[in-house]
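Tokens as discussed.
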């Protein structure tokens, strides 16, 4: 829990202040403020999910993320990109990852298309060209958006891989499905 969260819960700061502060994000170019903001946004996402105001909230988040997300793009020249190869510092790579995660989580259509393109390429070629630092995001987005065959593909890859770190990412991605039959 952040200091800001504590102040809000104690009643020293009105609850609308964090959303006003998030309005500054499009101007922010550093990773740490985005990371701190995303943690707060995911907490709000859990609170507002399945409420009448959720669409307003998610649209607001997407609006704040849009300019930086489109500026940084995706880390490699993968399927569906237009040659956006980015040689970046570690901080820039982390910021890029954070923006991709926010964009895909809150429903950015271009982000969804890119993730689906990566998964589709992997299935058709049987070559995983998804950059390692965003595989968890791409796998989860693919499982949540695509059909049962994708879930089965990820399940098969989970059982066939010997790399423990990849197994963990694949297993977590399987939980991104909304299909209760598959989850059971």
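Sequence:
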């Amino acid at each position: 829990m952040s200091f800001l969260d504590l102040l809000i819960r104690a009643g020293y700061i009105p609850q609308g202040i964090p959303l006003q502060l998030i309005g500054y994000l499009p101007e922010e170019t550093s990773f740490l403020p985005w990371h701190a903001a995303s943690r707060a946004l995911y907490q709000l996402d859990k609170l507002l999910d399945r409420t009448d105001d959720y669409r307003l909230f998610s649209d607001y988040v997407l609006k704040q993320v849009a300019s930086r997300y489109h500026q940084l793009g995706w880390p490699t020249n993968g399927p569906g990109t237009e040659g956006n190869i980015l040689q970046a510092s570690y901080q820039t790579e982390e910021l890029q990852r954070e923006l991709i995660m926010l964009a895909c989580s809150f429903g950015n259509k271009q982000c969804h298309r890119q993730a689906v393109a990566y998964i589709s390429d992997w299935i058709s070629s049987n070559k995983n060209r998804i950059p390692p630092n965003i595989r968890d995001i791409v796998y989860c987005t693919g499982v949540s958006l695509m059909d049962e065959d994708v879930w089965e593909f990820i399940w098969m890859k989970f059982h066939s891989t010997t790399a423990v770190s990849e197994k963990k990412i694949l297993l977590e991605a399987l939980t991104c499905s909304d299909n209760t039959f598959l989850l059971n």
